[in-house]
Amino acid sequence: MDNRQNGAWLLHHTNKLQNVTKINNFENLYFAGKCGILLSALSESENESKILNSKVEIIAKASGINTVFELPLILTKLKDQHLIDFDLNGNVAVLGVTSSTVLTYTNNIFQERSPSSQEKASLELSELTSKAPLDKNLVSEYISDTYKLSNPETEDLLNDSEQIGFIDHEVIENNDKLYFNGNLFRKGELNKIDKVLQSLTSEEIRKQNEFSQLLDLKGCILLSNGKTILGEKLFNKLHSIGFFDVNSVSNEQETSYFITRPSSFCKYGNPFTEDALDLAKAFVTSLAYGMHQSTSGRGKIKMLDALLKKLIAGYWVGPASAIGQDYQVLEYKRVVEIAQSGKEGQFKMRLLKKDIGEIALKVLEQGNASEEILLNGSKVTTYTNPENNREILRKKQNSESKRDMVNTLRSLRTNI
């Protein structure tokens, strides 16, 4: 793997570790990932940014970083790496870091901490199981030989990876396990889709073709529309292996779900590294909300292409009252900066991460994604990424659904 791919898996693993009580033998990985998450949140695409201490703490909390125990250590490490500077009052200056280089810096911090063989192996394990489902015995042999781990060490690593969620697993014949993860369809998609189709019945293939045609046309469809076409059983089977992504946005009254392709959110190359923190997905969702739920009086988006291109060019947009409410998720993630305008209750906005805006523009131009998002007028305060939504579904699966999923995974299986 190259440095950016390694960095993307570091962020992936750190997000998983934040949901467990013990990080076991992954301290170096966890610390490097936390550094990358905060660095991404602090950085802009092209300019040196200066952020007040009080705002740094808010950004850290929104990023899942403990401001008492973790934040001082992370800031010191980032300063030692010449990525940021800060004054005696704790105000931070980010020194020309872009979101596209965050992954490389994250990997650099990880490598400098002399990570253990188990930590390095956990990254490759996830990369391998994103290419195709693999038998546990095959994985064990490869990991043990490549990283010079004893059999007990390898077994501990695989058990930890299962429990933390670095990889998914299903029990197959003779109590063997099949390993995979939710990134199966982010690259090499056509070949994998063909293998999945070979495992379906003729009626399932018809439903999947209808589903794919609608997704190609729209770029994004409501979850309810996808389930209507596929049916609950086929939907669960395909969603559980990451055949498509389910994103969700929430406000005080409801959560709305929509479906996109795993490979959609990239400018070029690998979509996993292009949108490792799901920033473009959150951006598309919030823009869609602004298009269809805001009234003209509060700032309804009417010309999306023109708006996005103006933001990407570095201009402020507004003023509008909606900007102060509809884009809070993006403000927490430092995708945009929001400021009060001259009039009371009016706000303006500028894009901080140009590359995220470019990815969002690509997705919205290739299909009319935004027309499918329907929310009420409450503030959009929460975004849930595809991986977390997929995990929730997998926990709810019954034995029949799991059996169907395992059969589909078998069709994708290969050798290392």
Layout of SSEs?
Elements: H1 3-17, H2 27-42, E1 49-51, H3 53-62, H4 71-80, E2 84-86, E3 92-94, H5 102-112, H6 117-131, E4 134-135, H7 136-147, H8 151-164, E5 168-171, E6 177-180, H9 189-198, H10 202-218, E7 221-222, H11 223-230, H12 232-240, E8 245-250, E9 255-260, H13 271-274, H14 279-292, H15 304-312, E10 317-320, H16 323-326, H17 328-332, E11 336-340, E12 347-351, H18 354-366, E13 382-384, H19 386-396, H20 399-412
Antiparallel strand pairs: 1-3, 2-3, 4-6, 5-6, 7-9, 8-9, 8-13, 10-12, 11-12
Explain this structure:
The chain has 416 residues and is α+β, with helices and mostly antiparallel strands. Helices cover 53% and strands 12% of the residues. The protein has 3 domains: 3-115, Arc Repressor Mutant, subunit A; 123-180, Orthogonal Bundle (Arc Repressor Mutant, subunit A); 190-388, no CATH class. It has 20 helices and 13 strands. Strand 11 (336-340) and strand 12 (347-351) form a beta hairpin. The chain is globular, with a radius of gyration of 22 Å.
Brief write-up:
The protein is α+β, with helices and mostly antiparallel strands. It contains 20 helices and 13 strands.
